[in-house]
Amino acid sequence: MTHVLPWKNDTVLALLVLTVGVGGTYGRMSSSGMVERPIDMAGLALIVVTSAALIWRRRAPLAAGVVAVAGAVVYYGFQYPGVFAAAPALIAVYTAASLGRRRLALLLAVALAAGIGVIVALSATDPEPGGLSLLSGWLVAVFVLGEVTRGRRAYLHEVERRAAEAERTKEEAALRRAGEERLWIAQELHDALTHTISVINVQTSVALELLDRDPARTRSSLLAIKESGQEAMRELRSTLGVLRQPEGPSAGLARLPALIDRAEAVGLSVTSSVRGTPADLPPETDRAAYRIAQEAFTNVLRHAGPATITLTVSHETTKVVLTIADDGTPGDAEPGMGLIGMRERAVAVGGSLEAGPRPSGGFLVRAELPR
């Protein structure tokens, strides 16, 4: 879209005012109402100068207004004919008001009215009705019109600003939702696959070690690998199902027995207990509780090696408390995003999570999730 520069518009306006002013004055299309003499080159020069001043009406409203008002007063002081010479001064008053220069607009209006008033008062004859006698009304009209224009311009600017702000907020909200969805997907894939892959790694190491010495146990390890692979496929299908249909089935505390079985299959010893009366949890809380337990088991498997896990699920009046403690020793596995992901899951459903080494050895994860 091509935008016309303001000074080009002002130049066109100045030429239009000059053309109408010169043509109307020489064509005697109006009268000032006072005694007039024929226009000469000096009068024509005054019309040209005051019209040309409008080129700077927005860039330099003070200078343009002073030239237009002074030129009009001098023009009528020499009794040149017509009312067109006052047009640039009226436009200067309107421009100052529309730009928010209210004091300048008032000063220009008062100066023009006072100058013409003095000329009329010193005139040898009373002015005829019409012409410059209507100047006060025109000054009030252009001043009010300038104020209205300024108010409308400010209103449109505010509307555009609010529309832009709303659009920006909408885009930010969309980006935030997309980021949250990406984080959720990353967490789901991490939680669903890390545990299974860790089990597969352990079973693969066992199978390789016992391949020649104990084929029977090797077969058991390979079957466990197969089962873990199938579990990974089920986890992926479940995650993709939730993505396609948000109300679809999801992981929850009901799947803890299967999680415990897989942990025990790779050499971990798990003791679990449930306290209180189990109740239906919100889907998001139920999923978060299971994923936290799953990630805690995975961390034990990756970082603590053979260990005993104590899992406690306490159903209280307003919350469910999940505790996973182990007695393992820290290994040399690379740190990951497990603890961060568990804490994010707990906070996302309005809960909290604490994790750290136990004074007696091992590691403790404690999550409190609202019911």
Radius of gyration: 43 Å
Helix content: 55-70%
Question: Can you tell me the number of structural domains?
Answer: 2
Specify the CATH homologous superfamily of the largest domain: Histidine kinase-like ATPase, C-terminal domain
Fraction in beta strands: 5-15%
Looking across the biggest beta sheet, what order are the strands in?
1-2-3-5-4
Distance between the termini: 57 Å
| String of helices and strands | HHHHHHHHEHEEHEE
Can you put this structure into words, describing what you see?
- The protein has 371 residues and is an alpha+beta fold.
- The chain has helices at residues 6-26, 41-52, 61-77, 87-98, 102-121, 135-210, 215-244, 256-265, 283-304, 338-348, and strands at residues 269-275, 308-315, 319-326, 352-357, 363-370.
- Strands 1-2-3-5-4 form a 5-stranded mixed β-sheet, covered by helices on one side.
- α9 links the parallel β1 and β2.
- α2 runs antiparallel to α3 and α4 (87-98) packs parallel to α6.
- The model has no long low-confidence stretch (mean pLDDT 82).
List descriptors:
371 residues, alpha+beta, Heat Shock Protein 90, 2 domains, 5-stranded mixed β-sheet, 62% helix, rod-shaped
List the helices and strands and how they pair.
Blueprint: H1 6-26, H2 41-52, H3 61-77, H4 87-98, H5 102-121, H6 135-210, H7 215-244, H8 256-265, E1 269-275, H9 283-304, E2 308-315, E3 319-326, H10 338-348, E4 352-357, E5 363-370
Parallel strand pairs: 1-2
Antiparallel strand pairs: 2-3, 3-5, 4-5
Helix pairs in contact: 1-2, 2-3, 3-4, 3-5, 4-5, 4-6, 5-6, 6-7, 6-9, 9-10
